[in-house]
UniProtKB/TrEMBL annotation:
This is Sugar phosphate phosphatase. One of its GO terms (cellular component) is nucleus. It catalyses: beta-D-fructose 1-phosphate + H2O = D-fructose + phosphate; beta-D-fructose 6-phosphate = dihydroxyacetone + D-glyceraldehyde 3-phosphate. Subfamily III proteins have a conserved RTxK motif about 40-50 residues from the C-terminus; the threonine may be replaced by serine or cysteine. Its EC number is 3.1.3.-. It is an enzyme of class 3 (hydrolase). Residues 18-383 form the Damage-control phosphatase ARMT1-like metal-binding domain. The lineage of its organism: Eukaryota, Fungi, Dikarya, Ascomycota, Pezizomycotina. The keyword tRNA-binding does not apply. One of its GO terms (biological process) is DNA damage response. Its cofactor is Mn(2+); Ni(2+). Pfam families: ARMT1-like_dom.
């Protein structure tokens, strides 16, 4: 088995991450906390916030000066020992001597401890502001899909050929939703985000797919439906929030409406992770945005910067119709979320059989979809 990518390899993404991406991310995190410190109105929160800023600045200094990775602060959660045991096994490595997969996971878990060990900041998402900005900038692509939702989810109106084409299109939409991974695109502008989304961009990107097994997946799910299977469960191990989470939910609504799945289980992260990864709270934010799109995309957007969008009555109705469908599936128990500490460990996914309850649960699924760059790297062990 090849060795995983090392941060010391100057020709690798790992080196770029350690020397360029991570310092930018930490600087943005420091700024986010500093702006959220309330001042004299809450002395405890102010004191804790200043300590978090100090810890983040220290972490940035250690990273940029290639210090050794110290043990994680114990916040009472069971994965801390897992990380600290790994540090011992690796002989207390320095940042540039570490593998990318381990060190970037360690980075975000260490950041999380700065918040989970406080009383006033323990639910604070340090990356929330950038998530909200990116979601608001995605309105044109959201509108395009929202207007199509009622037609693509209408059951039994397509020929077999049309159903297959639609299936492929919806999955490709879901695939390219990860074009707005904020941890990778740290300097992307508002307009550039929009250019990555939409049907023309998706069609242009199809030639970049290295392996495509959608035909086999379509055959599997349609065969299960035709056989009268009472339960067809599909799991999605999530990646990014914002537009990508929107298209993940769009896919879920399509599969449930067409009877290609009876249950969709979504797996988010437990901690703010890789800047834009999905947290349970991101579901509520997105669903609230779909329930009241004018408030989220127009009113609140105008308070932050000059809005470039407008919502017509038919736009609002299309978005609210999509929300009603997803809310119904959630209320009926057909669309659910499940968290697990495993998704924020540094381990490659071949250790899944060691996870007991999680492994047994996933074995009940007909199809498990892993989204995004990090999940792919964990599936393969990030080999060089």
């Amino acid at each position: 088995m090849p060795e995983p990518y090392q941060n010391s390899d100057q020709n690798s993404f790992a080196f770029t991450s350690a020397t360029k991406r991570w310092p930018i991310i930490l600087t943005q995190a420091i700024d986010a906390v500093f702006r959220a410190i309330p001042g004299p109105s809450d002395e405890v929160k102010t004191k804790e916030g200043r300590k978090i800023v100090e810890d983040l600045a220290k972490l940035k200094y250690e990273l940029q000066h290639n210090r050794a990775l110290p043990p994680l602060r114990d916040d009472g959660l069971p994965d801390i020992a897992h990380y600290n045991d790994a540090l011992v096994a690796l002989n207390e490595p320095k940042w540039m001597d570490s593998s990318w997969l381990f060190s970037e996971c360690y980075l975000y878990r260490r950041i999380a401890t700065y918040f989970t060990t406080t009383t006033k900041w323990n639910t604070f998402d340090v990356f929330l502001s950038s998530k909200l900005t990116t979601l608001r900038s995605s309105l044109p692509a959201i509108l395009e899909l929202a207007h199509r939702y009622s037609s693509v989810t209408s059951p039994s109106i397509f020929t077999d050929e049309a159903s297959s084409l639609l299936f492929h299109e919806i999955f490709l939409i879901c695939l390219w939703g990860n074009a707005t991974d904020l941890s990778l695109l740290t300097t992307l502008s508002y307009d550039e985000i929009q250019s990555l989304q939409g049907s023309h961009a998706r069609k242009e990107s199809e030639k970049n797919i290295l392996a495509n097994d959608l035909d086999e997946i379509y055959t599997l799910l349609t065969s299960l439906k035709a056989s009268g299977r009472q339960e067809i469960r599909v799991d999605i191990v999530l990646d990014n929030s914002g537009f990508e989470l929107f298209v993940d939910l769009y896919l879920a609504g399509y599969l449930l409406s067409q009877g290609l799945a009876t249950n969709i289980v979504l797996h988010p992260k437990n901690h703010p992770w890789f800047v834009s990864d999905v947290l349970p709270s991101d579901f509520a934010i997105l669903l609230n945005a779909l329930q009241d799109p004018v408030d989220f995309f127009i009113t609140k957007n105008e308070s932050e910067h000059e809005t470039k969008h407008d919502l017509k009555t038919e736009d609002t109705e299309a978005i609210k119709g999509l929300f009603a469908s997803l809310a119904t599936f959630h209320a009926e128990g057909k669309l659910s979320i499940r968290t697990n500490k495993y998704w924020t460990l540094q381990d490659p996914f071949w250790t899944l059989p060691e996870q007991g309850e999680l492994w047994e649960d996933l074995k009940s699924s007909e199809l498990v979809i892993y989204k995004g760059d990090l999940n792919y790297r964990k599936l393969t062990g990030d080999p060089h």
